[in-house]
Design a protein that fits this description.
Blueprint (H helix, E strand, L loop, with lengths): L1 E7 L3 H4 L7 E6 L3 E7 L10 E5 L3 E8 L2 E8 L10 E14 L11 E3 L9 E10 L2 E11 L6
Parallel strand pairs: 3-8
Antiparallel strand pairs: 1-6, 1-7, 2-3, 2-4, 4-5, 5-6, 7-9, 9-10
Length: 150
């Protein structure tokens, strides 16, 4: 497993390279937040933040001053071929299921909630690595409880 990042003006330059992967996606827009199956026809370029995930990777982004700050965590063989920076190896420490939207307090906008209108738990994988500053700890989304139902 690896973690790395990139800053790019177009999110589709990175997310578009994952279009053959099946997974889930939370996308935040100025007026709403959606949780949908990936791939989809969402307008990523107008999103403010979000993530795409499956058992092999998680791609997170946040738009800051018109640029997407993108972090990839996952298997190196699934890494989209772009100019990534700060690549680090990380290893799995454990995992647990949690409700991603605990009482919906985290979400301040209207939420299409969640896939197919079903409340479900998200599997979180806990990872650890080392960089110049010392140990780093990361959590990434891996899947949904009972995702074969979707």
């Amino acid at each position: 497993m690896i973690i790395c990042f990139i800053i790019d003006k177009k999110l589709s330059a990175v997310a578009g390279k994952l279009s053959n992967e099946r997974g889930f996606c939370e996308i935040e827009y100025p007026a709403e937040t959606k949780f949908v199956v990936f791939p989809n026809n969402e307008d990523y370029e107008n999103s403010t933040r979000g993530f795409i995930f499956n058992k092999d990777f998680e791609l997170k982004w946040m738009k800051i001053n018109g640029e997407f700050h993108i972090v990839y965590t996952g298997k190196e063989e699934k890494l989209p071929s772009v100019a990534w920076k700060g690549k680090r190896s990380i290893e799995k420490m454990g995992e647990e299921y949690i409700y991603l939207w605990r009482n919906e307090k985290r979400v301040s906008k209207n939420l299409t909630y969640p896939v197919n209108g079903k409340r479900c738990k998200v599997l979180i994988e806990k990872l650890k690595g080392v960089d110049e500053q010392g140990e780093i700890y990361v959590e990434r989304l891996v899947g949904l409880e009972g995702e074969n139902e979707f």
